[in-house]
Amino acid sequence: MPFAVYVLGLAVFAQGTSEFMLSGLLSGIAADLGVSLSAAGLLTSAFAVGMVVGAPLMALFSRAWPRRRALLLFLAVFVAVHVAGALTPGYGVLLATRFVGALANAGFWAVALSTAVAMVPDRLKGRAAAVVVGGVTIACVVGVPAGAVLGESWGWRSAFWAVAIVSLPAFVAVLRTVPGGRGGTDVGADPVSVRDELRVLTGPRLRPVLLTMALVQGATFCAFSYLEPLLTRETGLGAGWVPVSLALFGAGAFAGVTVAGRFADAHPVAVVATGMAALTVGWSALASAAGSPVLTLALIPLLGLLAFGTGTALITRVLGLAPGAPTLAGAFSTTAFNLGATVGPWAGGLALDAGFGYRAPVGVSAALMVLALLVAATTAKSRRSRAGERRLSAVNRCARGRRGSPGERPGTRL
Hints:
Order of helices and strands: HHHHHHHHHHHHHHH
Structural class: mainly alpha
Distance between the termini: 61 Å
Number of helices: 15
Largest sheet: none
Mean pLDDT: 81
Radius of gyration: 24 Å
Shape: globular
Helix content: over 70%
C-alpha cells in the first residue's frame, strides 16, 4: 500500500475529529459566546449541510486541477477556518467557519477517496478506501474524546487549535507524497466530461447503491447520536460509561473498516448483504436489550464493526461500479455518507420528541435498515428480470437466424 494512502487517512482523522467533536463542546461554546444550546447545536447542522452539498460542488470546482493541488488547497482552507474559529469572539463568524470548513472537508474527502483508489491496483482498492475511511473511526476512538478533554481542561477553543495543529503534518505529508494528475485520474489520462460522469452516477446501477449507503449511514448515526441518553436513562449506566461505550463503538468501527478493506474487493456483494442483514438484527437486538448493561455493552462494539464495515464495503462498491466517473464517484459517495449522517439523527430526534422513549432512535435505525434491505432486494429482482429479458431476446435472435430471413425457402441456402 503506498504511504500516501496512509497520509490521506491521517488528514481525514483530523477532519473527522472536527466533524464530531462539538458533541462534547456545546455547553462551553454556548456559555462563552452567550447563545442558547440550540443555537450552539446549529454549528453541527451547518457542518453537516456543508458536507452534503460540498462534496459534489468542490469536486467539480477542482476537477481540472492536479489532485495534489486540490488536496492542499482544501487542507489549507480547513486549517485557516479552524484558526479563525478559535480566535473569533462572535457566534456568526464561528457558524460561517463551520460551514466553510465542511465544504473544505467534503472536497478533501471526495478527492482523497478517488486519489487513494487510483494509486493502487484493483485488488487493493477496497483496502485503500478502508484506510481513508479508517481515519474517521480513529477520530471516534481518539480524536473526539481528546477534544472533549481539551475543552474541559482549557476551553473549547483549545480543541479548535488542536485540530489545526494536527492538520499541519498531514499538509506537509500530502505535499511530499501524493502524486499529481487531474482529479481522481492518473497522470496523463484524458479527462472525462462532467456529463459522462453524471450519466454513470445517475444510472440504474449506482442510484440504488447510493440510496442504500445513505440509509445504512442514517441508521448508524441515528443510534450513535443518542447513545448517551440510552445508556444513562434506559440502560442505567453512569455517565462515566459513556466515553467507554463510545470508545468501544469506535474500536469496533475500526475493526469493521479493516475487515471490510480485506474482503470487499473480492466479495463486495456478499460483504454488503451479510452486513446489512446483521445490522438489521443488531439494531433490533439493541432496542430490545437496552435494559441490560451486559448485553448493551456487548452489542455496541459489534454494531460499530458491522456499521462501518458495511459502509466501507458500500463505498468500495460505488467506486468499483463507477470507473467512468473518476472525479465525482468519491464526491457522490461522500454526499450519500453525510446525507445519512444528517437525516438519521433528525429522524431519531423526531421519535424522541414524539414521546416514544430513549430506545426509539435505535428502533428507527432498525427501520432504516429494513428500508435499505428492501431497496437492495428490489434492485436485485429488477436486475434479474432485465438479465432474463436480455437472455430471452438473445435466444429469439438466434432462433430467427437459424430459420433464415422471411420469405426464404428451406434448402435454398448455399
